[in-house]
Specification:
11 strands, about 120 residues, mainly beta, about 50% strand, 4-stranded antiparallel β-sheet, globular, single chain, about 0% helix
């Protein structure tokens, strides 16, 4: 229903910062909760952060709390992930996802639309 395209991934040294963007299609973007999930080699896809449709509520995995910030600009149909103080264990493919409800949950199965992912590599 909604097409998602991630961008902003790349290679960064430990301690550095990176900002990911997710551009969504459609005029109903403001009705969807959005989220970021990641998958490292040999591991299952895991929850990183989600945000409610209005942007008033957010959820973060313990591993990224205090370092990552999710935000959205509903006028631009875009959600962002600001990643600071990156660590090698943050290396993964990061996926943007949309949920057909305004409330932000943390289960990947709750999100029905997914982007293709963008690679984030953090060197030590």
């Amino acid at each position: 229903q909604v097409q998602l395209v991630e961008s902003g991934g790349g290679l960064v040294q430990a301690g550095g910062s990176l900002r990911l963007s997710c551009a969504a299609s459609g005029r109903t973007f403001s009705r969807y909760a959005m989220g970021w999930f990641r998958q490292a080699p040999g591991k299952e896809r895991e929850f990183v952060t989600t945000i409610s449709a209005s942007g008033g509520s957010t959820n973060y995995a313990d591993s990224v709390k205090g370092r990552f910030t999710i935000s959205r600009d509903n006028a631009q149909n875009t959600v962002y992930l600001q990643m600071n103080n990156l660590k090698p264990e943050d290396t993964a493919v990061y996926y943007c996802a949309a949920r057909n409800f305004p409330r932000a949950t943390i289960a990947a199965a709750d999100f029905g639309s997914w982007g293709q992912g963008t690679q984030v590599t953090v060197s030590s």
